[in-house]
Amino acid sequence: MKADADAIAVEQAIETPAPAPATTSDKVWREVVSWFWVIMAFLFIEGTLVQARVIPSGSMERTVLIGDHLIVSRIGYDAGIPFTAWHVPLWREPKRQQIIVFRAPLPEQGFPDFIKRCIGLPGDTIEIKQGVVYVNGQALSEPYRADPPNPQENRGPYKVPAGQYFMMGDNRENSYDSRYWGFVPRENIIGTPVLIYMSIDAPEEVWEPGHVGERFSTYLSTLIHPGEIRWKRLFHLF
């Protein structure tokens, strides 16, 4: 009986054709499909969950420094297709004094992404007296400010319209914000930072758009000069 079973197994093995080797076109197609799903996963994460941002200016010092690399959460704030203008606002609303990433209402500059602190909510009245910010008549406590109030600054009052927000930088004397260009519509809100994953001490121009070569050189430089990395800032949570 065992001999018969062995004979049948050998006969089946002989009769079963070996799978044909993959052709070059098959390999290329598999690679294309694999990369397609990688790209789709990236677009989904970038468009709905989180984005990476690098801080190019000092408008939020001391809170956020030039060269800080942030993970920004879009969850509940905004969803869209990366590298396009298509997006939809979601259900979460910015809170007072929360740090927010948004598209600045500056069409002549291409609606650049800014990071500021949300000072005024819809319906609020904002006024600045001798550098102190008043919200609805009450002085706002701002321990995060990089400098003391400027007694020569007097602005407002500003009445924040429905569906819009008043944004200001923590480094109040070096911030291009709502005092100069107005309110931020809700649909311009992108999200809020959650984590600093890298921080590099390098000149401001390195992190500005278009300076790809300088930025790449800066990253290489940190391998030779690790002291350029602000190690104590890594993995700081907001």
Topology:
Elements: H1 2-15, H2 24-49, E1 50-54, E2 68-73, E3 78-80, E4 87-89, E5 99-103, E6 113-120, E7 125-129, E8 132-135, E9 138-139, E10 155-159, E11 164-168, H3 178-181, E12 184-185, E13 189-199, H4 212-224, E14 236-237
Antiparallel strand pairs: 1-2, 2-13, 3-4, 5-6, 5-13, 6-11, 7-8, 7-10, 8-9, 11-12, 13-14
Notable traits:
single chain, 238 residues, alpha+beta, Umud Fragment, subunit A, four-stranded antiparallel beta sheet, 14 strands
For the residues shown, what is the average pLDDT?
86
Q: Can you tell me the CATH topology?
A: Umud Fragment, subunit A
- Annotated CATH architecture: Ribbon
Measured distance between first and last alpha carbons:
74 Å
CATH class: Mainly Beta
- Strand elements, count: 14
How is the biggest beta sheet arranged? 8 strands, antiparallel
Our count of domains comes out at: 1
User: What is the C-alpha radius of gyration, as a whole number of Å?
Assistant: 27 Å
Number of helical segments with 4 or more residues: 4
Would you list the SSEs in sequence order as H and E? HHEEEEEEEEEEEHEEHE
**Class from helix and strand fractions:** alpha+beta
Q: Approximately how much beta-strand content do the residues carry?
A: 25-35%
Q: What is the share of helical residues?
A: 10-25%
Low-pLDDT runs = 7-14
Shape: globular
Full CATH superfamily name: Umud Fragment, subunit A
